[in-house]
Amino acid sequence: VLARHAEDLYWTGRYLERAEDTARMLDVTYHGLLEGGGRDPQAAWRALLEALHLAQPYFAQHRTVTPAAVAEFLVADESQPSSIIAAIARARDNGRNVREHLSTELWEALNTCHLELRGKDLRAELAFQPHELYRAIRTRCQTIAGAGSETMPRRDPWRFLVLGRLVERAEMTCRMLRARANGAAARTAFHDWLLVLNSVSALEAYTRSNGAEIDPGRVIAFLLLSDEFPRSVLSCLRGADTLLGQLDRDGPHARPRRGLGRVRSELEYHDADELRGHGIQPVLDRTQAGIWEVAELIEARYFAAGPAPQRHVFGAL
Amino acid sequence: MSASRLPDYHLAQGFDEAITGNCEVRAHYEAVFEELRRLAPEELAARERLRDALFRRLGITFAVYGDASGAERTWPMDVVPRILPAAEWRPVERGLEQRVRALNLFLEDLYVGERAALRDGVIPSWLVLSSEGFVREAVGIHAPHGARCVVAGIDLVRDADGVFRVLEDNLRTPSGISYVLQNRAALTRSFPGLSARHRIRPVHQYGSSLLQALQSLAPRASSSSPRVIVLTPGIWNSAYFEHAFLAQQMGAELCEGRDLVVEDQAVFMRTTRGLEKVDVIYRRVDDEYVDPALFRGDSVLGVPGLVSALRAGNVALANALGCGVADDKAIYPYVPALIRYYLGEDAILPNVTTYLLWEREQREAALKRLHELVVKPVAASGGYGIVIGPQAKPEQLDLCRKEIEANPRGYIAQELVQLSSHPTYVDGKLESRHIDLRPFVLTGAHTEVFPGGLTRVALRRGSFVVNSSQGGGSKDTWVLDDDGDP
Fold first, then answer.
1. Cα–Cα distance between B486 and B482 in angstroms, integer?
2. Mean pLDDT, to the nearest integer, of A70-83?
């Protein structure tokens, strides 16, 4: 696959995952607050912005944190490249650049998602039925992923698309864990961690393997390390590792794979005690830094071959 | 069975494809109009909405140049198909094949042959060598099988007597084939009842025919499955959708100039696994942008060094450089003579009567009748710069006369052809609208005419302008497998 196309495919995957994860986080933050638990709404919305690394651009536009303003900023603000509407538009623009690599069913699903969002009065929907909107976005993104998974041949274009999705997902899950581990007050810990599980659809899976007790250490271990749950950081990294192995004839010696191997092995050979209490923060910091490094190595190895690499801007890291 | 009629349908001047001069529906259109007559207005509107939704979902829209908002319009396709029975299509098919074969022989003669047609006075040398489409750098570059114009789009009109005539040849980077395929898909999906009673020749094999033609051009040294790519100017080109569509249909990479590099007189593309050799380039970039090292140094669309790789025979280019000389409108009047010269046959498809303005007698005769004629600049395409005598203001005609006198090589004058018309839905009612036809002809190891082509519709009443860039519509075009009795 052309280096330029690989880059567009990879970023299509990242933008779609970004949009879906943002919708998930908004949904659980909003409804988590409504369902009670004594949390401070201001702090919850601020934590969401910080998890997404978007507090700075948000406060450049707004002086106070209000649920409506945050939701609008994250969903409908086209000037903000990480907003859902902008991320989907960029995924679609990138997809259009590589239209011939996408199966028609995947392209139709992507184009339909974009057109449907454009056709909505997002502000009205956020005011009237936010859950329905978030659910629609999530469902559309899953339709796109499903159409791809069922119709795309397992060749390099597909691999770059999925690689982008997995890198983004690992990063988002990690961001969420960091944000939560940072500010968890004991009083609201139960609800906070319930929300984290919910936001990645992990509550059911967690309960099945850990029982109904929401223990912070176990939640973190589950979301970082579970090999059963497809959205855990380690699952994403293993998937990305397999793809990189297929994408690169240099096998494990290629730099992105070596970088990935380092993050992976740190998680795979973790010290169980570290994941409890104060030890967790450095583990999460190192994991996140490792994922960023892998993303940079991927860019350098596969995309920089083109003479005019495109800049894809995401909220300040 | 006696023929039926269309109520409230006003015949336009000229030939109507579907309706006879006695206002009766032609036999091969009976089944379609029977279906349409049963249709309630609400159902028609619903099916038209379904059609638009299909095009939108597939992202088949086109940008309009000069529209500052950058808005995209949905591709306009009328739901009434244009139908060509097998017996009507057969001579058209033979005529197109003959014409493109002769044009390729002419190009081959001109660029690598002894220029026999020029030497023997079939066509004036000065006229050919002064054409803007003549590319000096292409002289001596060989084309496998003599296939220079690999994809040709020949614009046909049907005159008042129902005779198909060639209006112009498009031999450089003709577009429109993707719409032929999408029109068929959209009509059969939004209106399955219409086509159910006919045996229609399929069009979906185009991608595989094109790939076959292109692969037949590969340099001999290349592997058993040569690598074909599509070269596009990029996403901002108005035909980008088509470039992507064809790349997908062929399973080929869609490259821009910046993705390609020439090393050791061979072309490579930059992939995630390093440089990979390219054997055949189907380019949708104009001649003057192909190789900035030779033509336009300021252009980033092309590939520096490409012409040296062509010359070394390490890569093939389709269409070859310099095909534009043969679709110069000043060369057009000589095509019937070229057919006779190269093939020893009479042209099956006649031209539109054309006046050579660089010949004094014809110029003087034409200048007296400018108000009845159509004047076209020889180098423009897409309907730009045309003056239609009967519709022009006296000042326009005066200006036109002065321009012809100053630069007689720059224009031709033609008799105005009364384009045929076709029933077309306008606001839910069938009205007569003028149409033309652009069939596509592929040449690789041999020449193959694709059934049907793109029928374009002038959506304004009485207008002859069918170009989509100027508000034209389109129709699905059926070539029947039989002669139309369902």
1. 9
2. 92
Nearest C-alpha neighbor of B242 from the set A100, A101, A104: A100
Q: In a 3-state reduction of DSSP, which class is residue B115? A: coil
Residue closest to A23 by CA, chosen among A147, A113, A157, A92: A113
Task: Give the whole-angstrom CA distance, residue B461 versus residue B231.
Answer: 38
Does A236 score more than 60 pLDDT? yes
CA–CA separation, B10 and B3 (whole Å): 17
What's the rounded mean pLDDT across residues B212-216?
96
Residue B259 to chain A, least CA–CA distance (Å): 7
Q: What is the pLDDT of residues A33-49, one digit of tens each?
A: 777 666 778 888 888 89
Q: Is A112 on the interface with B (CB under 8 A)?
A: yes
Task: Name every residue whose Cβ is closer than 8 Å to that of residue B149 and which is 6 or more positions away in sequence.
Answer: B100, B103, B104, B107, B171, B319, B320, B323, B326, B443
Q: What residues in B contact A143, CB-CB < 8 Å? A: none
Asked if A3 is an interface residue toward chain B (Cβ–Cβ < 8 A), one would say yes
| For residues B335-348, average pLDDT | 98
Using the beta-carbon criterion (under 8 Å), do A2 and B235 form an inter-chain contact? no
Both tokens of residue B433? 């609208």
The string of pLDDT tens digits covering residues B156-198 is 999 999 999 999 999 999 999 999 999 999 999 999 889 888 8
CB atoms within 10 A of CB A61: 11
- Amino acid residing at B354: T
Residues B365/B415, Cβ–Cβ less than 8 Å: no
Q: Which residues of A touch B255 (CB under 8 A)?
A: 2
Distance (Å, whole) CA B326 – CA B110: 10
ipTM for the predicted complex comes to 0.75
Whether the pLDDT of residue A184 is over 70: the answer is: no
Of chain A, the end-to-end C-alpha distance in Å amounts to 29
User: How many CB pairs lie under 8 A apart between chains A and B?
Assistant: 70
> What is the least distance, in Å, from the CA of A208 to any CA of chain B?
40
CB contact under 8 A, B58 and A2: no
B56 contacts in A (CB within 8 Å)? Answer: 111, 115
Closest CA relative to residue B290, chosen from B315, B253, B326, B327: B315
Across the beta sheet with B411-415, the strand order is B354-356, B411-415, B373-377, B387-388
**C-alpha to C-alpha distance for B390 and A190, rounded to whole angstroms:** 84
Number of H helices, E strands in chain B: 14, 22
Interatomic CA distance for residues B64 and B73, integer angstroms = 8
Cβ–Cβ < 8 Å for A222, A202 = yes
B33 with B18: CB under 8 angstroms? yes
Residue that wins the pLDDT comparison between B445 and A313:
B445
Token pair recorded at residue B401: 């006369």
Confidence at B223, pLDDT banded by 50, 70, 90? low
Closest of A138, A137, A135, A130 to residue A67, by C-alpha: A130
Give A286→chain B minimum CA distance, Å.
Answer: 28
Distance CA A306, CA B292 (A): 18
How many Å apart are CA A82 and CA A115, to the nearest integer? 18
